[in-house]
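Here is one chain, start to finish.
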Amino acid sequence: MKFWIFLFLIFNLDCKSPQIILKEPVKSVQTGLVSFGLFIVDDTAFTLFEKNAEFKVLAPTHTFFYSIDLTNSEIEPKSKFIVNPVPTGENIEINGKLYNEKKRLVIENDRINYFLFSNLKPEIQYVLGSTAYSYTTVQFSVRGRRRDQINYVDIPLPLTDLSKTLNFKVIPDEISFLGNFVIKVEVKQKGIFLDFNENKIGTIHRAEDFLKNSQNQELIKSLYGGNEISEKNAEIVFLKKLLSNSLENGYWTKKAKERLKQISEETKN
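Its structure:
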């Protein structure tokens, strides 16, 4: 009897967990979707046991963006906003299913995160300003009690030359997938201690260029579905992820299917 009660509770909890989806657009508001895949490579984060690895792939956590003043191509400091993988959207129920709607969504794909924006203003240009990754350290008290502590490493990106940054605008009524990108971490100035948080900086590169000579098949499979390393295959993988994070028969589902069909027809020709 207890076994069946336990199963019922597990099933009940599972049913109440909302599916995270991208918020449906308001019909009266012209909107578009812009997205990109992002991962971090920090060779300075290797431990003694990882020295034989090709490189260490880390998932971005809290990531900051700015809007750009197009009259003088300068960053507007007060325009900063954050995107975090933790779901904080609104819970809604549609046809008996519970959803968590987010205007700014992060889809986690192994250690690669897809950032999606559906509420940005088409007339404004935006730029990726900084990101971060986390790692866990284990601490023991004098009595031998273990405590896991999550630490964050902030990675600012140089914004003096906007041509070397990831900047973007929204195209109304379109899904704009910018591609996959990698942030390579460098140490500006080595410190005395192991914690170099304040001395790290990142530069952004296209994933295709970074992975040309890579043997990391796990990463290639996550980004390109195990197929050829190309922007087209990257977009196909993203669109399939979008389908599983959109309202069934909703606006973004329709748009994603249309784009997949278009890519298929382009490939045939």
